[in-house]
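Appendix B. Chain record.
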Amino acid sequence: MKRYSWILLLLAFALCGQDAVAQRMTTVQGRVVNSKKNKAGKAMMPFTDEAVFVYIFNTIADAQDNLSKIDGAQGAAVVECNFAVCDQSGNYECQVPDNGALIFKVGMAPAKLEKVDGRNIINMALEGEIMLANIDVVAYVQEIQPKPKAAERIGNKFFPYNTFPIPPHNGRPNARLIIQPFIIDCTNDDTVNYCKPIVLDGQDYHDTQYRLMGFNWKHDPLYPYIQRRRLTAERMSIDWADTITIPHPDRNYSCYATIQMEDFTSIFFKKDFQIVTCHNRQPMRFLEYKFDMRPLDPYKYKEVAKREKRNTSAAIQLTFEVGKATLDPNNPENEQNIAALQNKLKELAAGEGVSIKEFHITGTASPEGIYKSNIDLAKKRVDFVQQQITSILPKYVLARVYQNPQAIVNGWAKVADAMEADEQEEIAEKIRGVIKNTKNMDIQGATIAKMEEYPEIQKYLPVLRSVKYDCKYEIFRELSPEEIWARYTEEQQTGVERKYALYEYWNLFMLEKDSVKLEKLYKRAYDESIELNGQPWILAANNLAISYLKRDTCDVTLLEPFIDRRMKHVNMVRKNIDGFTTRTINPEEVVNNQLCMYIKAYDFDNASVMAQILPNTPENQLMKAFALCLGGYYKSDKQVFETVKNSSPVNEVVMDLALDTKAGNAMAAKAAQKLDPESPVTWYLKAIIANRGGDMGYIDATQNLKKCFSMDEKYIKIAETDGDLDEDMVASTIDEYLEEKKMTAELNAQMEEQRKAEEAEAAKKAAEEAAAAAELEAAQKALEEEAAKKKAAEEAAAKKAPARKAPVKRTTTAKKK
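Structure tokens predicted for this chain:
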């Protein structure tokens, strides 16, 4: 018996081990095709009009239990299990236990169960049902009247399309049909572009026109657009589609068409129709992406110090003895000011790599007195100051300094300006009247001196007596970062901008921490480098581009000078004309930032060019994929599609919807289950998915939109012009949402009023109770006070009453007998 127990135990372990091995996950892939002929008459081709679902089950028994449920459904996920959807080529891939099962289902065709049995490739041929074409019961109209469509807009490309039905008896063999589509900007109703016209000739018209053109079609400007089909009196249908590059990809566009029919005598039909609505479909509207902005290595692009001219000028206050060219000895500031200027010149003369080129003194005198005497005295004083200041310079330095002292006498107009600035308009006007009457300064001075207001005028004369200097020098020495920062700080304090050398800007880039001030420095360095060298400094341009991108601004001209589109590589080193120095063409950081700049400018064609220049590295893969995807290349490049799709849960839904197929819609519905329910984008995307389900998804689309609007009402404006949503459904949903919002607001207002009334009632009741309690407390207090008073009165009365004598106890002494 013990022996049989061991056998049973070993058998149980073996079975358990077999089950463990059987549940090993494996990757299964394959292709599903239609065994019946499609519309083109070809068999064993992928399904194009229906989504093919592949349901995944861990066990064969579980698959058999759910087969009847799936078989009764029309290509929908009706059971709680994982599933995959075949792509446009019929391919699928999934993870399934090697002893599990797959169920293949397409449309109303019977579902088919297939055991995995450890296989990695399972191809399947399903008998697809014969798809009956939609039957539209219509009444033929008497005139041409195309129905407007919702066109797709991807990047800066617009894809208008439509079908032009030509009713019977509208066309003629002896007539020409011309359809001229044109694009309209829905923002301002401007005409953006004219598309290629469609021209159909009747056979008789065509033959006659050929003869009229002298048997040379070059004479007919519409000949390049004439189609091979011929216009007839029978009912016709003309399909049309075009691709237009639009100037503003952030706007919606519409398309109109002028339809004209003419013969050789007259235009017998001409009318404009809207053939594409302003409700554009934008597959990439909710694509999530961020810019990977890359700075250049500042030490690689550091500018070196160069010999540069520098100017410095200022005014010094000096006072002279009356009528003399000597300084006033009673004013100690004279010597201080002269000494300060002498020390400045000494510093320049002794400075490393500094040479003084020019030094000029300009003296100005006030206008009172005789003009000739004033000008002569001013010249003497200027010469005196010039000699005093430059005397400290060595002769070999002074011999190389250009000096040109100037003496100027300020006119009375300067006095009038100064007084007018101090709101002395009346006196200033009198002075201007004197100046107007005579041009002789001596007569002007004499006349003004006789005015009653002359004592007031004299107060403004000292201001016009000044001495200014102007010094120009060259320096060939790299200033220290501390010196550069000191100059920059002085500029910030005074508010007067100065020019810096490029290496000084480089130091300021490293020292300044404020982003706003840094951007201004980048712009100044960029502009001054163009002024100095004829081309921008790459470091300043790249830093400025990054600063612009960070604050959502774009300028595609900043980095373009450093990119050579003919070279499809980055970091190419090229020698300059001198044959020794080199420069880098297409620096990778610059190309990457220019790609970001083009995306920000909605110029996806040029962004795609930048993406082609960037190398295929892991750092560039995602940014390149985004650029190509936004440019509309995701349908032709599977790697781009998969890279963007796998970048985020939202992007997975967006890319599946962008396929615009039933299989894509099904995959989008599955991926949407993983989205954040607290995001309005989630519910907007779910509304699009439900809307694509037709009438069956109407209620879900409405509810999803309402939930989206309740989270963020900015999506109302987006939905109103979204071609991915039914126009009537959106309009009714917005009306319902606003009505429900109004009712909710009214209900909340009523509840708030009721709450306030209840609070007021409760407050009133509490006040009454408090008043009653206070009254009771007051009564109690009054009783206590009365009792206290009574007790106090009794005590007072007791104190006033005479005190009783204590009874004397008499004792008798027994007499001794």
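Further analysis of this model is presented in Appendix C.
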